TrEMBL record:
The keyword Magnesium does not apply. Keywords: Kinase, Transferase. Belongs to the pseudomonas-type ThrB family. GO terms for molecular function: homoserine kinase activity. One of its GO terms (biological process) is threonine biosynthetic process. It comes from Shimia aestuarii. SUPFAM superfamilies: Protein kinase-like (PK-like). Pfam families: APH. This is Ser/Thr protein kinase RdoA involved in Cpx stress response, MazF antagonist. Residues 29-266 form the Aminoglycoside phosphotransferase domain. InterPro entries: Aminoglycoside_PTrfase, Kinase-like_dom_sf, Pseudomonas-type_ThrB.
Length: 317
């Protein structure tokens, strides 16, 4: 399989006039390589997962990145092919090439943050501010005709067919555990409906600002991997960012810092602290559904995601 994706990557790079072999970085949802750009610059090549995003949705993501870049944000920008396109086709996949972003990931899911707590707080404050800037510039952008990205509204989060899967049907759940997640779903539905009715902020969000997608360089943070970007609740964006901190002893301090950084740049709702807890749990439930079908029912990851969601829900309820 790895040899196959290397060949696809090499074939894709020909659309940019590049013959230098790429280096595999990640083979998960998308296959990501470090590559040379057409002018010898460092770049990231993505082989997009078949069936996940339409060609129009990928083009919309890359247009969005260009709009954010034009507004002064430091995000990966598309590099156009020799034909002037932002995408190239290889058998079974679409490929895109974007500018390289320097930095190290903020951390890794399931692994305690390594830096001193004061630095953790400072970086979460910086992340909150960066997400606020993202929302401001996304609202300021005039979307072109045909712009298309998914929508994570109330129904897509806690409806009968959530966008990330019916998390209460995770195969590892017992009857009692299923009942607990359904209780949480009902409670979250009430929270989300009330938030929406109160004019809850909704618009383009990154929707995947996990540690691995937040690069740190010289104390500054930058977002990468906009592949999951959707129209969604802005508080969900912050909940995603907190979802890997739920079991850290200093999670409260990190949540306060994230909200403080955001609030210094963009207004937050009055009940932001309470909403942050709810949307953090929402992400945990979504991940419990996301794993369904990606692994065999008896794979350890299926239970791991379920156990994480259950512990988050118990602490919240």
């Amino acid at each position: 399989m790895e040899r196959d994706v290397h060949q696809l990557a090499s074939d894709a790079l020909l659309a940019w006039g590049v013959t230098a072999p790429p280096r595999l970085i990640k083979n998960r949802e998308n296959v990501v390589f470090e590559a040379c750009g057409p002018n010898g610059e460092r770049a990231a090549l993505r082989l997009h997962r078949p069936g996940y995003q339409s060609d129009d949705a990928i083009r919309s993501e890359l247009w969005w990145a260009e709009a954010l870049g034009a507004a002064g944000m430091n995000v990966p920008l598309p590099i156009r092919t020799m034909d002037g396109d932002v995408l190239a086709a290889v058998p079974g996949r679409m490929a895109s090439l974007v500018t390289w972003m320097d930095g190290e990931p903020l951390g890794e899911g399931g692994v305690p943050l390594a830096m001193p707590e004061a630095e953790q707080v400072a970086l979460h404050r910086a992340l909150g501010a960066e997400l606020a800037r993202l929302h401001i510039e996304s609202d300021n952008a005039t979307l072109p005709d045909g712009f298309t990205r998914g929508v994570l509204d109330v129904e897509a989060l806690v409806g009968e067919t959530p966008a990330w899967g019916r998390f209460w049907e995770n195969a590892s759940l017992t009857t009692e555990e299923t009942a607990l997640l359904l209780r949480a779903r009902a409670r979250l539905r009430t929270v989300l409906l009330q938030h929406a009715a109160a004019g809850g902020d909704f618009g383009l969000i990154h929707a995947d600002a996990l540690r691995e997608n937040v690069l740190v360089a010289r104390g500054r943070v930058r977002l990468i991997d906009f592949d999951d970007g959707v129209f969604g609740f802005r508080m969900y964006e912050l909940g995603v960012a907190m979802s890997q901190n739920w079991d850290q002893p200093n999670r409260d301090a990190l949540g306060v810092a994230l909200l403080d950084g955001y609030g210094q740049v963009r207004a937050l709702p009055d009940d932001a602290e309470t909403l942050l807890q709810s949307f953090t749990v929402m992400r945990g439930l979504a991940s419990c559904g996301w794993v369904i079908g990606r692994y065999p029912d008896d794979h350890p990851a299926v239970r791991d995601y379920a156990q994480r969601a259950l512990e988050m829900v118990r602490a919240w309820i």
